[in-house]
Amino acid sequence: MKVTIKHWRAVAAWRWDMPEDDVCGICRNPYDSTCSKCKFPGDECPLLMGDCNHSFHMHCIFHWIKQEASQERCPMCRQVWKAKGSDARDAES
Ligand SMILES: [Zn+2]
Ligand SMILES: [Zn+2]
Ligand SMILES: [Zn+2]
What we know:
This protein is mostly helical. The chain has a domain at 20-84: Zinc/RING finger domain, C3HC4 (zinc finger) (Herpes Virus-1, 2-Layer Sandwich), CATH 3.30.40.10. The chain is 27% helix and 6% strand. The chain contains two helices and two strands; from the N terminus they run αββα. It has helices at residues 2-17, 58-66; strands spanning 47-49, 55-57. It has a two-stranded antiparallel ribbon. A hairpin with a 5-residue loop joins β1 (47-49) and β2. The relative contact order is 0.13. The chain binds zinc ion (3 copies). The site of one zinc ion (ZN) has 7 residues, from loops. One zinc ion (ZN) binds next to loops.
């Protein structure tokens, strides 16, 4: 019954990848709240989703990326961070 096991594993992996708790992986505040630096949720403190499908408060990920130790990688999966849909990477100077 290899197929069954494979299937089960796939489901397990998928579940593991899901953001089970809807909190920012950097500040641990909920996505519908603000980062730890802001007081009021809204446009001032938007969420950014990366190519790796991890989301963070914009302020959190920007702050994280600026730290040398981050190596500009997603703190959750260690992929190089790139905001989702931002093909116009050259435009940011
Ligand atoms: Zn945050
Ligand atoms: Zn903020
Ligand atoms: Zn990630």
